[in-house]
Write a structure and sequence with these properties.
CATH architecture of the largest domain: 3-Layer(aba) Sandwich
Number of domains: 2
Shape: globular
Largest sheet: 6 strands, parallel
Distance between the termini: 13 Å
Strand content: 15-25%
CATH superfamily of the largest domain: SPOUT methyltransferase, trefoil knot domain
CATH topology of the largest domain: Alpha/beta knot
Number of helices: 7
Order of helices and strands: EHEHHEEEEEEHEHEHEH
Number of strands: 11
CATH class of the largest domain: Alpha Beta
Strand order of the largest sheet: 8-2-1-10-9-11
Oligomer: single chain
Radius of gyration: 21 Å
Length: 279
């Protein structure tokens, strides 16, 4: 295990409710993905807002951005909702390598791969890892064509890889996306996680308050929930839940009438990032 802090953010399915323009909404979701990557968020949870449920579109854009460029055509079918993804900035994370030359791969290097061929009864597998050709995978298991998996280079001549569990990768390796029906139920299931509610009604984060927040942090895992463009978190959580969790305002004295969800995500994660600089 790496022992690093796991971070999650919870956003509403109504994130895109303010516009019917797919281009605008693609960029909005792209900002969430960039914030997640910048601040090493391991999971993005989309909770359903009964007033406006665009979870399919949001999750589709998030998953597209998290998938390495060299695997997108292989793993993500072409859909109308993805027509504006060319405008999105790359994540530039460790699992989105720029280098595509096989000779520069080093033993011990990690890559995201996808199975392109499975041959023989012994489970022979070839994987695409973003170089000029698929490479063999050393494994005793069978993987179906199209299966995404993490691999580690163990040989250069011949070039070959082996599957590896993500928990054994020592650096940030992207985020997973999940859609849930209820914010309250999901938070209740996160018993070993420190939960923070980002709200204008919360305690204002001043330098002193931030110091107290950092010093009081006794759980490594962190989850931050955000309200919708139209309603605060009190519309999705009971009064008991609102009292049970830590509620903070990371943009006190805001100069605008409202703060957009994607803006709140960046501001909040930037401050809370100070809670785990030891990672």
């Amino acid at each position: 295990m790496t022992g690093r802090c796991e971070r999650a953010i919870l956003i509403p399915s109504s994130l895109t409710m303010e516009s019917r323009d797919t281009r605008v909404n693609t960029l909005k979701v792209g900002q969430i993905a960039r914030a997640a990557a910048v601040f090493r968020v391991s999971r993005i949870v989309i909770y359903r807002d009964q007033e406006y449920n665009d979870s399919r579109f949001i999750s589709m854009i998030l998953r597209y951005m998290e998938t390495p460029q060299y695997l997108r055509k292989l793993l993500i079918p072409r859909k109308e909702e993805l027509r504006h993804v060319g405008m999105l900035p790359p994540l530039r994370t460790s699992h989105h390598p720029i280098n595509s030359k096989s000779e520069s791969l080093k033993i011990g290097e990690f890559r995201v791969g996808a199975v392109v061929e499975s041959v023989g009864s012994d489970g022979g597998v070839w994987v695409e890892i973003g170089i000029n050709r698929p490479i063999p995978l050393r494994t005793g298991e069978k993987y179906p064509v199209g299966q995404r998996l993490n691999v580690r280079i163990f040989s250069q001549e011949p070039l070959a890889a082996e599957p590896v569990d993500q928990k054994d990768i020592p650096h940030y390796w992207g985020y997973e996306t999940e859609v849930v029906d209820s914010l309250e139920s999901y938070l209740e299931s996160m018993r070993d996680t420190r939960i923070v509610l980002a709200s204008r009604s919360g305690r204002a984060i001043t330098p002193q308050a931030l110091l107290e927040l950092v010093q009081s942090g006794n759980k490594r895992d962190l989850a931050v929930a955000f309200g919708s463009p139209a309603r605060g978190l009190d519309a999705f959580l009971s009064k008991e839940s609102m009292k049970r969790y830590e509620m903070i305002n990371t943009i006190p004295h805001q100069g605008t009438e409202t703060v957009r969800v994607e803006e709140a995500v960046f501001a909040t994660l930037a401050l809370l990032n100070l809670m785990s600089l030891e990672d």
